[in-house]
Automatic annotation (TrEMBL):
<keyword id="KW-1133">Transmembrane helix</keyword>
<dbReference type="Pfam" id="PF01618">
    <property type="entry name" value="MotA_ExbB"/>
</dbReference>
<dbReference type="InterPro" id="IPR002898">
    <property type="entry name" value="MotA_ExbB_proton_chnl"/>
</dbReference>
<keyword id="KW-1003">Cell membrane</keyword>
<keyword id="KW-0732">Signal</keyword>
<dbReference type="InterPro" id="IPR050790">
    <property type="entry name" value="ExbB/TolQ_transport"/>
</dbReference>
<feature type="transmembrane region" description="Helical">
    <location>
        <begin position="368"/>
        <end position="395"/>
    </location>
</feature>
<protein>
    <submittedName>
        <fullName>MotA/TolQ/ExbB proton channel family protein</fullName>
    </submittedName>
</protein>
<keyword id="KW-0812">Transmembrane</keyword>
<keyword id="KW-0653">Protein transport</keyword>
<feature type="transmembrane region" description="Helical">
    <location>
        <begin position="285"/>
        <end position="307"/>
    </location>
</feature>
<dbReference type="GO" id="GO:0005886">
    <property type="term" value="C:plasma membrane"/>
</dbReference>
<comment type="similarity">
    <text>Belongs to the exbB/tolQ family.</text>
</comment>
<feature type="transmembrane region" description="Helical">
    <location>
        <begin position="407"/>
        <end position="427"/>
    </location>
</feature>
<dbReference type="InterPro" id="IPR017270">
    <property type="entry name" value="MotA/TolQ/ExbB-rel"/>
</dbReference>
<keyword id="KW-0472">Membrane</keyword>
<dbReference type="GO" id="GO:0017038">
    <property type="term" value="P:protein import"/>
</dbReference>
């Protein structure tokens, strides 16, 4: 019973609401346990008193800090009021100084305004001028000068104003000079090298081998144009770059120093070969038909010219020769001198009909080609327009250049068709005239033979 009571007392002591100190040794009796509990309460009371003392000290320090913060806030408020007063005084003083500066400047204010405007315009011109490729970094002093004239702290010096005048005068002078100097040039492949370049005023710049250059204002570098102008322009530029005196022809682009809009449009214009490629399959078919028609017409023209020559020689001869249509027709009369008139007329007509297909060979084909060539061109145009409008449907019409380029390419086949049809019609007319000339001679001579044969028959009768 005592043992059970002892265990219950230990459990109660360990689970009390008040905290107790856990001892390392185990109580051997109730009195000892009661001593342990009492000692724990005494220790806990001491700890509570220490915590209360620490809390009171912290509270006192917080009050002190609060008082210090209030004192600091009061001091800062006084300082803020003082600074506000000084700021207002300084504002009045600055306004008074600005008024004094304006009065002292007088007409110089208008002068500085004009200088600022001129410097700004000149800085914009320097950014895109070809002269900057020869004299780089000319804009730095202009920026500093504009900042001075725009502010109120500093004024530009006489040397800076004179330099502005000098740079303006140098730009005008260099615009009328042709100068050669060394500069770094980038090829279309990205390779850079120092090469001799020639600047023609502020219009164009070319290399010593005649290649036109483009000035990139963002980097201040020179790039060789990927596509050069066609014709003799590059040759002229090369001659100018290597000339030492005298006059040389040169293709000047007056539209600007950065390659020039006119030069760019001229370079970007498709060549004849590129135009032909725009025609596509239909354009190539039209060209093939055109070449065939021209070759056929030239061949028939040569043949008919020879036939006309032989017929003319036959007209001067009394004996029929089988190397020409007229001789073969006359041979019918020589082989049948006693034939009656009606039969002879039929024989001669038959002989002429045999010669006419040979004489008119290929003429109908030329006529057909002249008729279908424009139709083929129209077919290519309609097909190209359909493709163009399909692209507009998908991508929109936001880029007029792309739409105009598609329409221009579609019209190439129409141009090819007309280029084939017009000379084909002319060649057909000339060739047909030669053929009709021969046929006319055959008809005249056969009619004459029939008349002579009829007269001879009537004379015998």
């Amino acid at each position: 019973m005592k043992t059970q009571l002892f265990k219950s007392a230990i459990f109660a002591a360990l689970t009390m609401a008040s905290a107790t100190v856990v001892v390392a040794q185990e109580a051997k009796s109730l009195d000892q346990l009661l001593g342990f509990v009492k000692q724990g309460q005494i220790d806990e009371a001491k700890e509570n008193k220490q915590r209360e003392a620490a809390f009171r000290n912290a509270k006192a320090k917080q009050g002190q800090l609060l008082n210090e913060a209030k004192a600091m806030r009061t001091a800062q408020e006084k300082r803020s009021a003082q600074l506000e007063g000084e700021f207002e005084k300084n504002e009045l003083r600055v306004a008074d100084k600005q008024r004094q500066l304006k009065e002292r400047l007088g007409t110089l204010t208008e002068l500085f305004g004009h200088l600022t405007s001129t410097a700004g315009d000149l800085r914009g011109n320097f950014g895109s001028s070809l002269v900057s490729a020869q004299f780089p970094n000319r804009e730095a002093f202009l920026d500093e000068m504009i900042a001075k004239m725009s502010g109120a702290e500093k004024l530009p010096s006489i040397e800076e104003i004179e330099r502005l005048w000098f740079e303006l005068q140098r730009e005008m002078t260099e615009s009328g000079r042709i100068v050669a100097f060394d500069a770094e040039v980038s090829t279309p492949g990205g390779e850079k090298s120092v090469r001799k370049v020639v600047r023609v005023g502020t219009f164009n710049m070319v290399t010593e081998d005649g290649k036109y250059l483009q000035y990139v204002s963002e980097t201040g570098g020179l790039n060789e144009l990927a596509r050069q102008p066609s014709g003799p322009v590059v040759g002229w530029a090369k001659d100018l770059a290597n000339a030492t005196e005298g006059f040389s022809p040169f293709g000047v682009d007056p539209t600007g120093p950065t390659g020039g809009t006119f030069l760019a449009a001229l370079i970007n214009s498709p060549t004849l070969g590129e135009r032909f490629e725009q025609g596509g399959t239909i354009g190539k078919a039209i060209a093939a038909v055109g070449v065939f028609a021209i070759l056929l017409a030239l061949w028939r023209l040569v043949v008919l010219t020879g036939v006309n020559a032989r017929v003319s020689a036959q007209l001067k001869s009394d004996k029929a020769n089988t190397n020409n249509p007229l001789g073969r027709v006359l041979m019918v009369h020589e082989q049948n001198p006693t034939m009656d008139t009606e039969t002879l007329e039929l024989k001669l007509s038959e002989a002429i009909l045999r010669e006419v297909p040979k004489i008119e060979f290929g003429l109908n084909l030329l006529k057909i080609i002249a008729a279908i060539a424009p139709l083929m061109g129209l077919l290519g145009t309609v097909t190209g327009m359909i493709i163009t409008f399909q692209a507009i449907t998908i991508f929109g019409a936001g880029d007029p250049k792309a739409m105009a380029g598609g329409i221009s390419g579609a019209l190439v086949t129409t141009v090819l068709g007309l280029l084939v049809a017009i000379p084909t019609v002319l060649l057909h007319t000339v060739t047909s005239g030669q053929a009709k000339k021969v046929i006319q001679v055959l008809d005249e001579q056969s009619t004459g033979l029939i008349a002579e044969h009829t007269e001879a028959q009537l004379g015998k009768a």
